Amino acid sequence: METLEALAGQLESIEDLQSITRTMKALSAASIRQYERAVEALEDYYRAVELGLHVVLRDLPAGERPPTEAGGPPGVVIFGSDQGLCGRFNDHAIEHALERVEAAGFAPADCRLLAVGGRIDAGLDRRGRTVDQSFFVPGSTDGITATVGQLLVAVDGWREAGVERVELVYNQPVSGGGYRTADSRLLPLDVHRLRAAEAVAWPSRRLPDYRLPAPRLLARLTREYLFVLLFRACAQSLASEHASRLRAMTAADRNIREHLESARMAYQRRRQEAITAELIDVVSGFDALADGAGE
Questions:
Q1: How far apart are CA 67 and CA 144, in angstroms?
Q2: What is the spatial order of strands in the sheet that 179-187 belongs to?
Q3: Which residue, 174, 221, 236, 240, is CA-closest to 39?
């Protein structure tokens, strides 16, 4: 039977663990909204870049327009986490990326990989896949810009090496909590999507115009377009990571409450037994003294 001191120690440990899980829940809940606001703030800029690309592509001769299709094995940027306690968050992203590559008819060993998050790098290594580069997950919205800058440099290196097709795989939050695994095309430019802007009324009374040479402006706008896509994927992945961790910590907190209640009952029962034993000892001692005095 466990001693009263041992039960008290267990009770204290469980209460400390409960405090940790509740702190992590609060941090994750606050972080989710932070990254969701970052994505929302990006939408107007994203729309402006899309419209700019639409105008430039419209004016370019057919022979100077960027390709809409690409051959050869793709490069895949997979967004995950550096920290654990978020369920199968990273496994879902890895499995989705490898399935996408195989569905396109390529062997996973032929494609190039970039990992955002140490857990993605480790998960791919366990599956026998080596990444070209691994990047730390930013700890705040301010850090996303620096990470995206590094990713753009890596993607430029791929393009110089002949990689024409680049895809993004990441988790994105869904309404009601949780996340789903998504993918999107980074390169080549999704010209069909940009042409869809023709169906939308121009947002101002002035018709668009520009003075830079069209190829030069296209290169600049393309750079901004890739930045926006990478930034959005990274921010959504971070929001999803915290949503997954919030769900995991909520389940852990529920289990801890159950264990805490059991531990408190065991402690109270053992404490009552100890008090009862002490009272019995006192009564027995008193009776023995009374019997001795009577003799």
A1: 29
A2: 133-135, 112-116, 75-79, 166-173, 179-187
A3: 236
Question: What are 97-125's pLDDT values in tens digits?
Answer: 999 888 888 877 789 999 999 999 999 99
CATH topology of domain 35-247: Pyruvate Kinase; Chain: A, domain 1 (3.40.1380)
Tokens (6 digits) for 163: 């990689």
Q: Residue 237 CA to chain centroid, in angstroms?
A: 4
CA proximity to 121, closest of 109, 108, 131, 136:
131
What H or E segment, with its residue span, contains residue 281? helix 214-294
* Rama region for 34: left / alpha / beta (φ>0; ψ in -120 to 50; rest): alpha
Which residues have CB under 8 Å from 24's CB, separation 6+? 85, 245, 249
Query: Is 157 in contact with 66 (CB distance < 8 Å)?
Result: no
The single-letter code of the amino acid at 137 is: V
User: Smallest Cα–Cα separation from 225: which of 127, 117, 152, 160?
Assistant: 152
What six digits make up the tokens of 76?
């895949």
pLDDT for 293 equals 59
| 138 cis-preceded (ω within 30 degrees of 0) | no
Residue 13: pLDDT over 90: no
Torsion of the alpha carbons at 237, 242, 244 and 247, rounded to the nearest 10: -160
pLDDT given for residue 124 in this prediction? 94
Our measurement of the distance from residue 3's CA atom to the centroid of its chain's CA atoms, rounded to an integer in Å, reads 44
DSSP 55-90: HHHHHS-GGGSPPS---SPPEEEEE--SS--STTHH
Q: How confident is the model at residue 207 (pLDDT cuts 50, 70, 90)?
A: low
Helices 4-59, 141-160: inter-axial angle, 10-degree rounding: 50
CA distance 225 to 37: 19
Whole-number Å distance between alpha carbons of 126 and 91: 11
Q: Mapping DSSP to helix (H, G, I), strand (E, B) and coil, where does residue 172 land?
A: strand
